[in-house]
Amino acid sequence: MQHFDKDSIDLFPSRYRASLINSLSGFKSANLVGTVNGEGHTNLAMFSSVVHIGASPALVGLVMRPNSVSRHTLENIRETGQYTINQVSESFWREAHQTSARYEGYESEFECTNLTPSYIEHHDAPFVEQSRLKYALLLREIVPITLNDTLFVIGEITDILCDTDAVMEDGYIDIEKLATVSVSGLDSYHTTARLSRIQYAKPNETAQLISLSGELYPLCDGQ
Predict the structure, then answer these.
(1) Are both 56 and 109 inside the same structural domain?
(2) H/E element holding 15?
(3) What strands, in cross-sheet order, belong to the sheet with 150-162?
């Protein structure tokens, strides 16, 4: 097993170090963040840093890189206070990845990648029509992370759009039915294979497996 200490990590070429460190967190969600500025110019950007914060209120966070160069997504969110998060599926993962190119502010990634914007009432930011699970957010807080000058952007979910047959009776969303993909490192995309759902763990009890409908599987002798 290789052992990289801090001194060796610091001496790595920047691209090697970025690839190595980005791989450590394993599989991450692949999402497109849709925004629009005050003049109506749309923007679409790939993010793998979206994280759940809480369900009541429904809060989601994402990490923005240092604002040392123009960050169209961040600028638009600050200007309008609105954005969307759109899960990436197998059918358009290559187009989604292309949004990470450095397009100019006047260029819309929707047009450059042949993805389709769509809208709902009372929310100005665009959704990705091709996405099968997407949600609208209002900006609630931007938290500076002083260690590396990144920003943690926190939004509250106001609307959720999801394929009907992927929402189970207990509220669980079966993302495998949506052919959702994940990301590892900076540039590797993956499909998934579920092992199972499993019951909430309690001390001194064996957690049982749960069917997709929310029912418990009976435990077999010796299981």
Answers:
(1) yes
(2) helix 14-23
(3) 42-47, 31-36, 82-87, 133-145, 150-162, 58-64, 51-55
